Amino acid sequence: MSFLHINNVHKRFGETHVLKGIDIAIEQGDFLVLVGPSGCGKSTLLNMIAGLDSISEGELLLDGRCINDVHPSRRDIAMVFQSYALYPSMTVAGNIGFGLEMRKVPRKQRREAIDRVAKLLQIENLLDRKPGQLSGGQRQRVAMGRALVRDPQLFLFDEPLSNLDAKLRVDMRTEIKQLHQRLGTTIVYVTHDQIEAMTLASRIAVMRGGELQQLGTPQAVYDDPNNLFVAGFMGSPSMNLVKARIVEQDGLPVAQVATEASTLTLPIVRDRDALRDWRDRDVILGLRPEAITDPASANHREGNIHEAELPVALVEPTGADLYVVTTLGGTHVNARMRPGTPLRPGERTRFAFDVSRMVVFDPESERRIRDERVAEATPIGETA
Amino acid sequence: MSNASPEQDGGARERLQRWLPKLVLSPSCVLVLFFVYGFIAWTSYISFSDSGMMPDYTWVGLHQWSRLWTSWTWGIALHNIWVFGLLYIISCIVLGLILAILLDQRIRAEGVLRTIYLYPMALSFIVTGTAWQWFLNPGLGLEKTMHDLGWQSFSFNWLIDSNMAIYTVVIAAVWQATGFVMAMFLAGLRGIDGEMIKAAQIDGAPAWKIYARIIIPQLRPVFLSAVVVLAHLAIKSFDLIVAMTGGGPGNATAVPATFMYSYAFSRNEMGIAAASAVFMLAVIAALIIPYLYSELREPRS
């Protein structure tokens, strides 16, 4: 029995079907990130876990107990809101202690709990201030303190970092991760930022249009996407998606991609069995920018490298990397190369494709074409 | 002049552009200066003069002021304005807040109800006063209706009872202004972050505690605005009382405004009337000026 079990949960607002049967199960100590574009239903799902929105259909189990109709205050959860939702008329200590006060915890114990949390979050010197006198980062800490002080079974975070500036966001992200590791709490975290999702999560649930697209570890979601949406949403710069055609060569399926002048043939290593059935049909290839590189940086030991000489359309240095753009199958393709590689637009250079990391999608259904097997993370939510 | 070599034509146009707003605004500015501030100054002077039926510019110092403060009727008027003002402000705020909280429960037909409660504010005080006078008149309104319906022992004669008449004025005034105060509170309630209420729910606060501890403390600016608006309405209240009770029975519902009117225009004591008018202005100014100062200063901080 998993710790938090979201079992075929639906949400309807009148005629609109906001959540169409979500199935997610996580274990104690997991850090689940619900990620997706705005309007995908991730915040609604979080509000339903919190008890702030009713469940139209399905079941919500926390530690084996059905909490569908349990009042938010009795679910043993705490929530950190996007706007922090601090009570402006109370001091920081009053804010942190309010939940305990409402639960009739004696003053002395309350004070001890507040001090413990304040020390943990390094806000001891702010306890007598009002929220209006705090900076964004400090408010964020107070909001987390308010959640931590009650020591609940489950923490819910609703886009907690989206109101912070870029630098502070990275710092707070690290801090949330450290807190999770230190306290071993179970967290459900909503964000639209896929980098936040990748860095924080132990499990990622990618959602779109009220449906779960994929649930898995960050690496599984990144390397082994279920469909074109997940492939394009996760990762920055995003995965290169290139039109190609599967043909048979020496009894094996290969992918043919149109370049500016000729045709590039890439051998198929992954999902070979499934792709046999796709002979002479159009598909979409997915290749991460780091799977296309210069021959010297290519991972010859683990990867399966296939080299080709292609023209350079554009060079984008970021300092850490050099992104080289070429054209494949009519679209721009990003390749990540070693910085300092002397390249100019218009030149030709050798690109090394790691075909062991190449994934293939059905252009019609947008689903991944993959071999039948038990994946390390069971893909669910792939409703038609 | 920043422009090094202004063309003759361009320079004239630029000058015109600079002066046009001032030219357009100046007539109204002059009118306000004369008719508002000029007459305030004139009234202030009259309060130190020997004026009776007609203005008389003989300076008599504080003579009119001391007559005002020894006047028995002025004492009643001040007492009445205290009773009226306090009851009016407190009732309007309490009822307005309760109505606003009830309307804020996402009920159906909220728009209709809001309009119904706001409508009294659209009436002039004269209409309100007259209507309530009819309604509370024992021979015409509520009491007679009850008698006609068969409840012979029913009695409600506050309007003609000199001890109770002031409360009928309070009832009418509260009826008129409560909807407005409700609208102010409703706007305040709508401005409160919904996530904060969700957070309080998760914290386990019952609804009344959410209101008492979190929402109502945040409405402090609305309370302040309501008090200031209602207080100056109370002090200015004149037409309502004239229409409802005419200051009577006897002097039972006299307030400073009716006092000023009767001394200026029927008792031919313009000096005392001017002194009372200046006093009312001072009280209102003491309320409004700090309020405006804090309101207008707020955006900068």
Automatic annotation (TrEMBL), chain A:
Keywords assigned by UniProt, alphabetized: ATP-binding, Nucleotide-binding, Transport
GO molecular function, one term: ATP binding
Domain ABC transporter: 4-234
CDD domains the UniProt entry points to: ABC_MalK_N
Pfam families documented for this protein: ABC_tran, OB_MalK
Gene3D superfamilies to which the protein is assigned, alphabetical: 2.40.50.100, Nucleic acid-binding proteins, P-loop containing nucleotide triphosphate hydrolases
Name by which UniProt lists this protein: Sugar ABC transporter ATP-binding protein
UniProtKB/TrEMBL annotation, chain B:
Pfam families tied to this protein: BPD_transp_1
Residue intervals passing through the bilayer: 23-45, 81-103, 115-135, 164-189, 210-235, 270-293
Location of this chain's protein in the cell: Cell membrane
Domain ABC transmembrane type-1 per the UniProt entry, residue ranges: 78-293
Record bears the keyword Zinc: no
Keywords recorded for this protein, A-Z: Cell membrane, Membrane, Transmembrane, Transmembrane helix, Transport
Cleaved signal peptide residues: none
Mode of membrane association: Multi-pass membrane protein
Main location: membrane
Family note: Belongs to the binding-protein-dependent transport system permease family.
Identification of the protein by name: ABC transporter permease
